[in-house]
TrEMBL record:
Its cofactor is heme. The keyword Oxidoreductase applies. It is a single-pass membrane protein. The lineage of its organism: Eukaryota, Viridiplantae, Streptophyta, Embryophyta, Tracheophyta. Its main location: membrane. Belongs to the cytochrome P450 family. This is Cytochrome P450. Pathway: Secondary metabolite biosynthesis; terpenoid biosynthesis. PANTHER family: BETA-AMYRIN 28-OXIDASE-LIKE (PTHR24286:SF209), CYTOCHROME P450 26 (PTHR24286). The chain crosses the membrane at residues 6-26. SUPFAM superfamilies: Cytochrome P450. Keywords: Heme, Iron, Membrane, Metal-binding, Monooxygenase, Oxidoreductase, Transmembrane, Transmembrane helix. Signal peptide: none annotated. It comes from Citrus clementina. GO terms for cellular component: membrane.
Length: 484
């Protein structure tokens, strides 16, 4: 709680400074609004100049209830689209399946991806910051080289082996473990192995140190001044790129055919026009995947262990499925792609966990043109936001939305555009299958070895920017009497 209060206080100071700098601009904009009013904007409140309603938005996230911010305004304005001001930008929030469908189905037609300027300055040339043909080209190359199911099939055994080594080192023989930091280490080590064939413990430790500094600046104010969080984050990102470019140069000199990581593949694969990615584009995309696979996967795995620790019957059902898979294999035989496809109940449980507690709040777009939605004008240049909270807890889409029920995802699954922890449309998270693979392999190896108790059953979770436990989710491990 102290950290949250300190962060909000820091944000207030930062917003106050921004207000001083931008006050003349604000007055000009307000005068223009009076002279040229737009009566067709969605209902809502832009709040304080520059600050807008950002503090309420951030506070709801820190408290682990981002849907509260959305739901309160949906009810207040009796509308599934409303205007606000977040992160210093006039913004329109789209709620419900219709809003999601519009944003996900009109990429590069009505809307394009948008992120706060801090994200663009940190990730530079990666897929996240691309639009139009450039985004399609880069996405196609990444999917073809690493992230498609066909490409991932080749990595299942390696992921299983690395996971077993991690559990033997950091979990076995331990009475108590803090889940979140330990799982973050696991996902980072695994990403380093698979994305860039980094196996040197000293280099992994060096990259992890830079990476933890880098993470703190992803959603910070983009003030690149010595001593600020953003300044430190920029320096850390540059240090990671420098190490990645060294690896690119080394692998270019060596026999690339012997490497099966994403970095090696991106170096040698050209698009349909014969164009190769630059060293900086390769490094930026590896940095993006280190970020997405590390933070999202570690959050999802942590949450899954939390829910399994709270629900004995669900735990037993998952254990039964995983033991059945383990017993179908020879002693010491590693998991294969076919085994992952048998983990249907386990993935239904993980899906329900991410419905109730999505690792990320949502994402942003920008209007490319003026367009009309639900009778309202959406002006060109305005920023748009979609939120998992507007559908995941909607009782018309998920009856008894606060109740855990993994059977929701059996057979045909959820209503289209209602379940969106990985986004949707052309901008759906390209690492979805990769994250699914990591989650399932980890749970397979974890649950067949241990039961566990939560040491802080009512521990608070909050978004910063991913959903994480305030005290790391400490658990007490109880090894099974006979592990498979």
């Amino acid at each position: 709680m102290h950290d949250m209060e300190f962060t909000i206080f820091s944000l207030c100071i930062a917003f106050a400074l921004l207000f001083v700098f931008f006050y003349p601009l604000i007055i000009t904009v307000k005068l223009k609004e009076k002279i040229y009013p737009n009566p067709h904007l969605p209902p809502g409140n832009l709040g304080w100049p520059v600050i807008g309603e950002t503090l309420g938005f951030i506070r709801a996230g820190f408290e682990g209830k981002p849907e509260r911010f959305i739901r309160e305004r949906m009810e207040k304005y009796d509308s599934r689209v409303f205007k606000t001001c977040l992160l210093g930008e006039d913004m329109i929030v789209f709620c419900g399946t219709a809003g999601h469908k519009l944003l996900f189905s009109n990429e590069n037609k009505l809307v394009r991806t948008w992120w706060p300027s801090s994200v663009g300055k940190l990730f530079k040339t990666c897929l996240l910051m691309k639009a139009g043909d450039d985004a399609k080209r880069m996405r196609r190359m990444m999917m073809m080289s690493f992230l498609s199911p066909n490409a991932l099939m080749k990595y299942v055994e390696r992921i299983d082996m690395i996971t077993q080594q991690h559990i033997a080192t950091y979990w076995e023989g331990k009475e108590e473990v803090k889940v979140h930091p330990t799982v973050k280490l696991y996902t980072f080590e695994l990403a380093c192995h698979l994305l860039a064939s980094v196996e040197d413990p000293l280099l992994i430790s060096k990259l992890a140190s830079h990476f933890n500094i880098f993470l703190k600046g992803v959603m910070s104010f983009p003030v690149n001044f010595p001593g600020t969080t953003f300044y430190k984050s920029i320096r850390a990102a540059d240090a990671i790129r420098e190490e990645l470019i060294k690896l690119i140069a080394k692998q270019t000199r060596e026999a690339l055919g012997s490497k099966q990581d994403l970095l090696s593949r991106l170096v040698v694969i050209a698009d349909s026009n014969g164009k190769f990615l630059t060293e900086m584009e390769v490094a930026d995309n590896i940095l993006l995947l280190l970020f997405s696979s590390h933070d999202t996967s570690s959050s999802a795995i942590t949450l899954l262990l939390k829910y399994l620790g709270q629900m004995p019957q669900v735990f037993e059902n998952v254990l039964r499925e995983q033991i059945g898979i383990a017993e179908s294999k020879e002693q010491g035989e590693l998991l294969k792609w076919e085994d992952i496809q048998k983990m249907k109940y386990t993935w239904n449980v993980a899906s329900e966990v991410m419905r109730l507690s999505p690792p990320a709040i949502g994402a942003f777009r920008e209007a490319l043109v003026d367009f009309t939605y639900s009778g309202y004008t959406i002006p060109k240049g305005w920023k748009l936001h979609w939120s998992t909270g507007s559908t995941h807890k909607d009782e018309t889409l998920f009856p008894n939305p606060e109740t855990f029920d993994a059977s929701r995802f059996e057979r045909e699954g959820a209503t289209p555009y209602s379940y969106v922890p990985f986004g949707g449309g052309p901008r759906m998270c390209p690492g979805y299958e990769f994250e699914r693979l990591l989650i399932l392999v980890f749970i397979h190896n974890m649950i067949k070895r241990f039961k566990w108790d939560l040491l802080i059953p009512d521990e608070k979770f909050g978004y910063d920017p991913m959903l994480s436990p305030s005290q790391g989710l400490p658990i007490r491990l109880q090894p099974h009497q006979c592990s498979t």
